[in-house]
Specification:
Two copies of one chain form a homodimer. By secondary structure, chain A is mostly helical. Chain A has one domain: Winged helix-like DNA-binding domain superfamily/Winged helix DNA-binding domain (Arc Repressor Mutant, subunit A, Orthogonal Bundle), CATH 1.10.10.10. Chain A contains six helices and three strands; from the N terminus they run αααβααββα. Chain A has a three-stranded antiparallel sheet. In chain A, a hairpin with a 7-residue loop joins strand 2 and strand 3. The longest helix of chain A is centred in the N-terminal third of the chain and has 26 residues. Chain A starts with 9 loop residues before the first helix and ends in a 6-residue tail after the last helix. In chain A, 29% of the residues are buried. At the A-B interface, helix 1, helix 2, helix 3 and helix 6 of A face helix 1, helix 2, helix 3 and helix 6 of B. Chain A binds a DNA duplex through helix 5.
Chain lengths: 145, 145
DNA sequence: CGCATATAGTTACCATGGTAACTATATTGT
DNA sequence: ACAATATAGTTACCATGGTAACTATATGCG
């Protein structure tokens, strides 16, 4: 999350950064603007998911299972490879999804430690129903990007 | 935070979104890429601030006081106007900054509810010392932006 | 004036992010 | 075979985000 509402003017950035690398202060201004825009976008997405009793993470967990070619399940550690999230946080997200019947789990026969995670009919339908709004938010015009 | 490491291919986005608005799927791809890049950037900034016993928010609180023209202090509610953060979160951030001697507070004489917040010599020096690294991270080249 | 409303800031509680350390199972190497 | 190491997932604990409701003070208005 990036909180700054009113971005510093170029003059202000120059004032702060000119001693160090004046040649890069335009980059700095662009990055700050990008940070602000994407933070706003992330807030919109989070609000949207919250209105469906989801979070971005729980949505993405379902997405990476859904988009997996050739298989209808993933193990938690495979999800960790696909999402930039720590194991404990993923573990809890999965627990919540299972509690909400949005994920089903099955012990793996080869590896007693591992758990197969698959989408349920409910979550497949939920995914289909929320995707339009998701893409809508993502494709909405922002000020500059 | 946006977690997805491997972004969906254009073909995948089309598969998901073509029923709804195929004409916008390029926007979607661009936005997802932007989200990922800015999430990575935010992580780098957070790590940098953490290495100085700060957070992005506490840094920005000091910055908005420092950058205020004509005055050397702000009230908490004025900081709320400048930063997109809830009052309780700001309240705690301020408490931590005061505890670390990075902010000094003084009761306002006109309004007994309000508290004047100013930078301390320590925080002015700290700001100066961390700004180069901050701009460095912001101006570092990313893959596409 | 004095009551209703607004504002400044805090408290209580919850959601979600992280790391370190743990249990249980699998694998590796001698 | 079995000890050492690696891996799957969880637990415990902390940081930081949010909203609702609270206290205290200020303001507006009949």
């Amino acid at each position: 999350m990036f909180f700054l509402k009113e971005l510093p003017t170029q003059a202000m950035i120059n004032r702060y950064s000119e001693d160090y690398f004046p040649e890069r202060s335009e980059d700095v201004a662009k990055k700050l603007q990008g940070l602000r825009e994407y933070s706003t976008l992330i807030r919109k997405l989070e609000d949207y998911f919250a209105s469906h009793n989801l979070s971005q993470l729980r949505f993405l967990v379902m997405m990476v299972i859904d988009r997996e070619p050739d298989r209808d399940h993933l193990f938690a550690h495979e999800i960790t490879e696909r999402l930039d999230v720590s194991k404990p946080v993923l573990s809890r997200a999965i627990k919540k999804l299972i509690a909400a019947s949005l994920l089903s789990s099955k012990k793996d026969k080869q590896d007693a430690r591992a758990v197969l995670l698959s989408l349920t009919p409910t979550s497949k339908e939920l995914l289909r129903s929320i995707l339009p709004g998701y893409f809508d938010i993502l494709s909405a015009q922002s000020h500059s990007v």
